[in-house]
Amino acid sequence: MSTQWFEATLNDVCHRITDGAHASPKSVDRGLPMASVKDMSAYGLNLETARHISAEDFATLVRQGCKPLVGDVLIAKDGATALDTVCVIQRPIEVVLLSSVAILRPKTDVVQPEFLRYYLDAESTRTYMKAAFTTGAAIPRVVLKDFKRARIRYPDLASQTRICAALSAYDDLIENNVRRMSILEEMARRIYEEWFVRFRFPGHEGVRMVESELGLVPEGWRIGTVAEVAVVYRGRSYKGTELADFGGRPFVNLKCMERDGGFRASGLKRYTGQFKESHTVRPGDMVMGITDMTQERRIVARVGRVSGLDADFGVFSMDLVRIASRGQYAEPYLYAMFRWSGFADEVKQHANGANVLHLLPARIEEFAFARPTPELAARFADLFAPMLSLCDKLERKNANLQAARDLLLPKLISGELDVSAMSEPEAIAA
C-alpha cells in the first residue's frame, strides 16, 4: 500500500516560527556567543566564529525567544545564503541568534525536525520559496509571515523516520569526511604558525634574529612581496546569458569561496562563453576572492584550492584571481602563507566599496612578508602536500556522496519513491 501524504503550511506544522534579535547588542571580548547566518552550516552552528555579548544582554535575548532549543530547525533568512543553509539543533547549546536566522519549532507529533530540515534543503523547496517569497536585490531576505504561509508535504511519522534514516546515512559519511579534513587543516595551520609566525622551525636555535622593516626575522630570510614569488591572473568578465545549467565549462565564481578561506564545489556553475588561457583553472589551483558581498567581509582576500571540476579545466570569474607560483616556492607553502599569515586581514583593508567590496589585484602583489629560505619552505611543502592530497581525495568522495544524496532526496521528500517498503532504520544500520 502506498504511503499517504498530507499538505499544510509551515505555520500548521510548527509550534512557533520566529527569528533572532533585531537589535544587535555590543560585542565584548569575554561573554556568551551570539550567532548569525555566517556561523551556520548544514551541521549546525559554529560557536568559534560567533561574536560574544555580555551575560546581561544574553539573558535579555533568551527571554525574548532568541535562543534555539533542541529540535529547532534553523534556516538562513537574510543575506547571500538566504534559504540555502538549513540545520537542526541536535543537543543543548548556549547561544542566541540574530535576526538573519529563522527558528522553526516543529510539532514533533506531526513533522520530525530532521524531515523538515531535509524538506527545506531540497532544491525544489528552495526554488519555490525563493521565487515566491524572497525580497531585496542587494541583500536577499525572507520575512517571517512568508515562512508561515509556505506550504509543505509530508507523510506519516513512520515514513518520515525511514526517509531520514536513508538520507542521514549519506550525511554522516559526509560529515565524517569534513571532520577529517578539518583535522588535517588544523595540523598544517599549527605547523605553519610555529615555523613561519613564531619562527620556531627545525634548527631555529642556531639561527640568530636580525632587524628588518617588518621587525625581527631569522637571519637568511629577507623581506619580499607577493609579486616576486607569484603571478596573479584576473578572471573572465561574463554576461548572465553565458551561464547555463548544462554544457560549457565548469565556472568557478564567488559562490565557490568559503568564508575565511577554502573552496566550495557546490557553488560551481557552467560557462558557455569565450575565454583565454589566462582565464582557466585546474584542480588544485589557488583562487582568491577580490569581490565581497557578505556583510562580514570574510571572503575578500581569502584563498581556496579548486576542486570538484568534472573536466580537466574550468573558467574562473572576474570576482576572483588565480595565483600561481613563479617557482621559488612550492604552491603548498604559498597557499599556507595566504591562508594563515596576516595576509588576508591586512590586504582586505585596501578593498573599497560600501555595499560591495572590490580589491585591486595590485594590492595582493604589493603585500610584503618575511620570505623564508627556499629549503625551509620546501620542507614545509613536503609535509603539507600529502595532507592536501588526502583532503582532495576526501573532497571527491564527498562530491560523489552529495550527488547520490541529492538524487535521492527529491524523490523521497516528494513521494516519488514509495517509502512504505523501505527498511526500518535499525535494519539499514545493520
Report the count of strand segments. Answer: 26
Low-confidence sequence ranges: 424-430
Termini Cα gap: 25 Å
Helix content: 25-40%
Mean pLDDT across every amino acid position: 92
- Write down the domain tally: 3
Largest beta sheet: what is the strand line-up? Answer: 16-18-17-23-19
Largest sheet: 5 strands, mixed
Number of H/I helices: 12
Query: Mind telling me the C-alpha Rg?
Result: 24 Å
Short descriptors:
430 residues; alpha+beta; Helix Hairpins; Adenine-n6-DNA-methyltransferase TaqI, Chain A, domain 2; 3 domains; 12 helices; 23% strand; disordered C terminus
SSE blueprint:
Elements: E1 5-9, H1 10-13, E2 14-19, E3 27-35, E4 40-41, E5 44-45, E6 51-53, H2 55-63, E7 73-76, E8 86-88, E9 96-97, E10 101-106, H3 113-121, H4 123-133, H5 144-149, E11 151-155, H6 157-197, E12 209-212, E13 215-218, E14 222-225, H7 226-229, E15 230-234, E16 243-244, E17 249-252, E18 269-271, E19 280-281, E20 286-289, E21 291-292, E22 303-305, E23 314-316, E24 320-325, H8 331-340, H9 343-347, E25 357-358, H10 361-365, E26 368-371, H11 374-414, H12 425-429
Parallel strand pairs: 3-9, 17-23
Antiparallel strand pairs: 1-11, 2-10, 3-6, 4-5, 7-8, 7-10, 12-13, 14-26, 15-24, 16-18, 17-18, 19-23, 20-22, 20-24, 21-25
Helix pairs in contact: 6-11
